[in-house]
Design a protein that fits this description.
This protein has 155 residues and is of the alpha/beta class. The protein contains 4 helices and 5 strands; from the N terminus they run αβαβαβββα. Helix content is 39%, strand content 12%. The N terminus is likely disordered.
Amino acid sequence: SAPGTSGSGGSAPTNTRPSTASPSWSTTCSARCDLAMLIIEIISEYYNDTLLYVPSGSLIEKLAIDNNINIRKEIFLDRSYNNDNTLVSRTKANAIINSSELMFERINSLINNGYLISAFGKRIFLEVDTFCIHGDSPNILDCLKGLNRLYNAKI
C-alpha cells in the first residue's frame, strides 16, 4: 500500500485503448486514455475495494469495467449533454440546467425509459446508479428544494 493508504493492493490493470481510424480523435483519446488509465491503476493498486464514481457511458467507465474496478455510473442532473454523451461546455448558454422540474423529468426518464434528452433533442441511452448535482451551479439551493418537493409529491 502507498503511505497513508489502507488499500489491499491488486494486480496491475491491462492498458485497454479503444481503436479508431481518426487521427485527431486518436490524439485526444490518447491523452484521455492515459489519464483514465492512471486513475484506474491507482484505484487498482491502492484502493481496490473502493467504488469509483464515473460518468455513465464514458471512456473511464469502459476502462474501469475492463479492469474489474467496482463502479457507480453517474448522471449529472444540472448539466446539459451533447449528442455524443459529453457535457455541453460551460461557456455555452445552455450548459447549466436551472430547473428542478427538468431535473425531475430527467430522473423519471432515466429510471423509466433508460434515456435522457440531449441539449439538441437526441435520446441518449444511459445506465445510472446515482445522480450528481454540482454545488457551484447557479440557484442550486432553490433547485434542490424544488427537486425535494417534486420527489415528495410523487411518493
